[in-house]
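Entry 14. Ran structure prediction on the chain below.
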Amino acid sequence: MKRACVIGAGFGGLALAIRLQSAGIDTTLVEARDKVGGRAYVWERDGFTFDAGPTVVTDPDCLRELWALSGSQIETDVTLMPVMPFYRLNWPDGTLFDYSNDEAALRREIARIAPDDIAGYDAFLDYAAAVYREGYLRLGHKAFLDFASMIKAAPALARYQAWRSVYATVSHYVKSEHMRQALSFHCLLVGGNPMTTSAIYALIHKLEKDGGVWWVKGGTNRLATGMAALFQRLGGTLRLNDPVARIHTLGDQVSEVECVSGWRERFNAVASNGDIMHTYRALLGDTPRGAQMAKKLARKRFSPSLFVVHFGLQGTWPGIPHHTILFGPRYKGLLEDIFDHGVLPRDFSIYLHHPTVTDPSMAPPGMSTFYALVPVANLGKLPIDWAEVGPVLEQRVIDEVGRRLIPDIGDRIVTRFHYAPTDFEADYSAWKGNAFSLEPLLTQSAWFRGHNRDDKLRNLYLVGAGTHPGAGIPGVVGSAKATAGLMLDDLA
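Output, structure tokens:
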């Protein structure tokens, strides 16, 4: 039996390991931390459950497919709960907008805040559906291994003006600034700047419209543990709490994987779901290929990081939906500060996650779990002392949530802590503390992103946010499908 090793048990690594094991490849999944999930880590404090990363599942069919490979069903391990509305958008001027795939309700919302944009919204949805068919259904699971494959995709990219930004494309269809922000902020959730991210990412709207937005009962990490349970039932081997120290090579092949514990084994193929720079710079750092790729990657733009405040409160808030976007007073200027200037501005926008409104099991009875996420520059920009700034920013974020939504928040806090860019760097070996790997620019997409199979080391593969199509659960699960196809063909 052929043997494969997958490094990193994030969603991409888990999905790849399931595909390999389902196909009869003896697969070992190695994870540095004590739990599976990667950025979908979880903490339990004072009776509250705090998810670290993704807060929703879109395109649940891409997950169901993983269980179907072995004739089983996702419901064996995971309970999905619908989220409605998908998001409530909240602007400083008091405007509220509930975004969902309930067409009647959504049209009422648009008519209320931007009646002149209803026709433009319909035209935008037609555009989003077209790029969804091309960019997700046709190309989302395709491995771009050479420039010729990129050339073949070019006519479609040109047809949909992929060189334009999401914001510019949205602005072509709708005129209200509220609507422009409502239809462009989504790419921030995969590490992109709406002002520069390719218009292809408008496909997210069609993805959500068709597949809905879902919550995993017990927390998003339960999806990761469910995937790990499926992998192990299939006969796969899971190693936790053992960081990989080195990928050994022999000629133009990788030969062995060695962990910090001293565990070392030989494999026919190795795939990394780890940070792409860490894979080449550290795990392959003593090889010519590792040095070559690290130098090349250092010239690329990596996504921003995040500052996340987790807090548990006394009381329940049925009027605060599962997801709220608290926009700040600026949009374009704030994005420039984060993505270009690297400064920590005084104003910010907040992505507020309130899972207990959907799933009360995330907190003790009569209490609520929240996290407030603020995009911030990665560590490669201007130096910020997060040990000093972190507690100050944490309080400012709490105060803003209180000012906008929960006036007596200070009296209700049971537990709180924050997670900063330095934590992304320490816990995930994330280059510059990035939260989403390479920034999703057109010039860093498809063939210009990390290749699913290395060009020189012919049995080294990549999976996850650093490869095509990019970050987000559907993205990394799609990359696993592309990478598995290559590995199974090569190992046949």
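The two ends are 10 Å apart (CA to CA). Will compare against last week's run tomorrow.
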